[in-house]
What does this fold into?
Amino acid sequence: MGREEQIINERVKKLDEIRKGDINPYPDKYDKKQTCLECVESKIKGKVKTAGRLMTKRDLGKIAFCVLKDGTGKIQIVLQDGETPDKVREFFKKYTDIGDFVGVEGEVIKTKTGEISILVKKIDLISKSILPLPEKWKGLQDEEERYRKRYLDILMNDEVKEMFIKKSKFWNTMRSFLIEKGFLEVETPVLETSAGGAAAKPFKTHHNALDIDVYMRISMGELWQKKLMVAGYEKTFEIGRQFRNEGMDIEHLQDYTQMEFYWGYANYEDGMKLVEEMYKKIAKEVFGSLKFDIHGHKVDFSKKWEIYDFEKLIKKETGVDIYKADTKEVKKKLNELKVDYDDSVDKWRLIDQLWKYCRKKISGPGFLTGQPVELSPLAKRNPEDKRKVEQFQVIIAGSEVGNGYSELNDPLDQEQRFIEQAKQKEAGDSESMEHDKSFVEALKYGMPPTCGFGTSERLFSFLSNKPMRECVIFPLMRPEEGDFLERNPTVAKNQENKKDKEDKK
It folds into this structure.
């Protein structure tokens, strides 16, 4: 019998004995009066009643020291011969273990070493732990195990716990900023009959009640929010989950939180000013600084935000003139630079890969402008150069962490661009948009000049200098092999047959 199995058996045995003694090891509530932090801040000799999880337990015979932890912090509890009732000490010694949730009543004291503690007068078991916690110093070492058992990762690692508290503050700061600027928070559909509002591959599923195929949204209600501009709202935003059935890496996940706002009677230049102000507020209030080290880049939000021109930057870094070069020339340059690309896509998708190569060298902060109309089917054309659109992308640490533009509100132009996108989709470009006729119809009723902008939790991960997956509280995981095969009997049977064939050989 292994050590862990022995511990589990001992704890189950304790559970049986506790129940035989008419004690409920899992009561439905506990009348907690103070948090651990409030106990630490209480007056010496003050009476307190708190609860939390036992994180350490050191029994020295006549005195025992433990650390009690709740959502606010930790406090030491002391059980002492002559001060703590004998029955309380006996129960504590016999039936409690590290990992148990207990309620304690007692008096706040300061120990000889000067540590604020609770001298225990009464203790109640309020949730018995059967599985042992990871060792304090080793914790969860394997990354997959950390993500799979994130609850233990948070419990044993205060830095991880604080990160998710900070992430909540990140979104609340953004929400408060927009509300203070007069934006209305809205909710738009997660399931759509047409995947619109972005260039991305959607997840597809079937709606049984309506007997139709639907897509999980790939944008934060872009086309819906613009319909609200048609409806007469002038400032809207939404924060929620969106889904893209694409690759995973340090910057990308398939499901993540996104914010998008739409601002009537404003253009992309107004958007840049508002976004810069918002990012600085988030940096200061959430992270306490305007200076960051991100993936090897030093980024200072207090500096003047630069403007990078799409055409000029690519020409400077690669020598390619994007409007004169043909597909063959762009592919040749990508090969020279050892950049992977999809051979089936059109010239402008290849140009986009070229830009992403150049982007990696830019620390920022700044805004990319002057994007080709072919790469932005929902943006308004630049009146001074109709090959380009009025778009801005926030560039920080070699990546895009925000995208906005003056929204296209010419319904005929929009309809033609959707037609072109549909042709590209038929030719094999899975990221091209579909022709959304209902959106074009809404535009035909008239939409005011509008600036739209979106940013995702990638911004939080960048400012935290961590991979996106690390910053997701419960990232999507492959099922463990046993669970997966149990849920997929056909796969299990195929594996079994394959093994039989190999054994026969």
Q: What stands out?
A: The CA atoms of residues 372 and 388 lie 4 Å apart. The chain has a mean pLDDT of 91.
